[in-house]
Design goal:
With 219 residues, the chain is α/β, with parallel strands linked by helices. The chain has helices at residues 19-26, 43-56, 68-76, 141-151, 174-184, and strands at 5-8, 31-32, 61-66, 84-90, 98-99, 102-103, 128-132, 154-157, 212-214. It has one domain (5-214): Rossmann fold (3-Layer(aba) Sandwich).
C-alpha cells in the first residue's frame, strides 16, 4: 500500500497556482488537511485538524508543510511518531510572529507570548527535511537552522527564494518534488543532535545546528 501524502498549507492557505497545489495534483492519493480556517492561524486548532487527518489516513503519512503549516506539522506529530513516515517542511514561519491566538500585533506585541514555547524542542521521531531561503521575510536562515537543529532535521538552503510561495515565483516546483522523493527514498534520515560551540548570537540561539546542504550540492 502506498503511503498517503498530506498537504498542510500555511497562513491564508495555498491557492490553485501555489506549488503545494501543483504537487498535490501530481501525487496519486495526496490529500489536503481539512477543517482549518486558513485566515485564522490558531496553532491548537490547526494541530488538532492535522492530527485528525493523520489518524484518518490508512497508514503512516508523509507530511508536506509550508510556513505556519510547518509549525502545525511538528506540533501535531507529538505522540504520533508511528503514524508519520517523514516530513518535508518548507519555509517554516517564525513562531515569534504568532501567539496562541493568531498573529502577534504591535511593535511591543502587547504582552502576547510567542508560540516558541509550544513547539517541540527535541528531535522528531521520523525523518524530516527543512527547505530554507536566505531572504525569507518570515524567518531568518539562522533561526531556521536553530529549529532544525532541535528537531534533528536536515536543511536544504535554496538561496534567495523569498518565502518559497507564489509571491516569490514558486508555482510549479519540480525541485520540491525531487526533494520529497529524496526524503521518501531514505536520503535524509534522522540526524543525531550533537552539541556545538555557540555562536555569538545570544542565549536564544545557543542550540545545535544541522549541516546545511546548499542547492548547488548533489542530492
Amino acid at each position: 500500500m502506498s503511503r498517503t501524502v498530506l498537504i498542510l498549507p500555511g497562513y491564508h492557505g495555498s491557492g490553485p497556482t501555489h506549488w503545494q497545489t501543483w504537487m498535490q495534483d501530481r501525487l496519486p492519493g495526496a490529500r489536503r488537511v481539512t477543517g482549518i480556517d486558513w485566515a485564522s492561524p490558531v496553532l491548537s486548532q490547526w494541530a488538532e485538524a492535522a492530527r485528525r487527518s493523520i489518524l484518518e489516513a490508512p497508514g503512516p503519512v508523509w507530511l508536506v508543510a509550508h510556513s505556519f503549516g510547518c509549525l502545525t506539522a511538528v506540533t501535531a506529530s507529538r505522540g504520533l511518531g508511528e503514524r508519520i513516515a517523514g516530513a518535508l517542511l518548507v519555509a517554516p514561519a517564525d513562531p515569534e510572529r504568532f501567539s496562541p491566538n493568531g498573529v502577534r500585533t504591535g511593535t511591543r506585541r502587547n504582552g502576547q507570548r510567542s508560540l516558541a514555547v509550544d513547539l517541540p524542542s527535541t528531535p522528531l521521531p521520523f525523518p524530516s527535511l527543512v527547505v530554507a531561503s536566505r531572504n525569507d521575510p518570515w524567518m531568518r536562515l539562522e533561526t531556521i537552522e536553530h529549529w532544525a537543529g532541535l528537531w534533528g532535521s536536515a536543511v536544504i538552503d535554496i538561496g534567495d527564494a523569498g518565502h518559497i510561495n507564489i509571491d516569490s515565483g514558486f508555482g510549479p516546483w519540480p525541485q520540491g518534488l525531487v526533494l520529497l522523493r529524496a526524503l521518501q527514498s531514505g536520503r535524509f534520515q534522522r540526524r543525531p543532535v550533537m552539541p556545538i560551540p555557540a555562536r555569538r548570537a545570544g542565549p536564544a540561539l545557543r542550540t545545535p545546528r544541522p549541516s546545511t546542504i546548499h542547492a548547488t550540492q548533489t542530492l
